Amino acid sequence: MSSAASQTPAAGDRSHARATVAAATVVVVGASALAAAWGMELIGGLPPCHLCLLQRVPYYVGLPVAAAVGLGAWRGLPLGWLRLGLALVALAMLATAGIAGYHAGVEWRWWPGPSDCSGPALAPFGSVTDLMAQMQSAHVVRCDEPALVLFGLSLAGWNALLSLALAMVALRGALARPA
């Protein structure tokens, strides 16, 4: 066969097995991270800020792609397609790692965060009267104050590390050579 895209799995092909394991790892660990975030929000009462919600978006994109890659590897999809899918998953995990790293930097006051959740309170309002009206009707969760710190890292910091690890898993699966 002349191209990687046309390769189909042979008996015991380690490349397909690695793609399956990589995809399954991303799905299980990523879904667990999302479940923990939703659990802390819905059960633990920790409302997410704007950046916390933004960190979830790449998971919502990457996890279905990872599930499709795992299913495709199991069903014998050509290796080129599996690699492409895992590369897309790695990009999604790198995106959430970037957002999480930015968020952690905002929490540590290394740089300013978005004005809608960490800037001066009067910025989006025309007057103090408008501000008072908004304050009575809405609760803004600040992006520059960590909701929870575990072992010296905020949840954003932990998400950055976890997302980088998942990106590495996906890349390793994408770069696996045929046996």
Number of strands: 2
Distance between the termini: 14 Å
Count structural domains: 1
Main sheet record: 2 strands, antiparallel
Radius of gyration: 20 Å
Strand order in the largest sheet: 1-2
- Provide the β-strand percentage band: under 5%
Shape call: elongated
Present the secondary structure layout.
Blueprint: H1 14-42, H2 50-75, H3 79-107, H4 128-137, E1 149-150, E2 153-154, H5 155-174
Antiparallel strand pairs: 1-2
Helix pairs in contact: 1-2, 1-3, 1-5, 2-3, 3-5
Summarize, please:
One of its GO terms (molecular function) is protein-disulfide reductase activity. By secondary structure, this protein is an all-alpha fold.
Explain what the structure shows.
- The structure is a single chain.
- With 179 residues, this protein is mainly α.
- The chain has one domain.
- Helix content is 64%, strand content 2%.
- It has 5 helices and 2 strands; from the N terminus they run ααααββα.
- It has helices at residues 14-42, 50-75, 79-107, 128-137, 155-174; strands spanning 149-150, 153-154.
- It has a two-stranded antiparallel ribbon with strand order 1-2.
- α1 packs antiparallel against α2 (50-75), α1 runs antiparallel to α5 (155-174) and α2 (50-75) packs antiparallel against α3 (79-107).
- The longest helix has 29 residues, at 14-42.
- It is elongated.
- It comes from Blastochloris viridis (Rhodopseudomonas viridis).
- It is found in: Membrane.
- It holds the Pfam family DsbB.
Which descriptors apply to this entry?
single chain; 179 residues; two-stranded antiparallel sheet; 2 strands; disordered N terminus
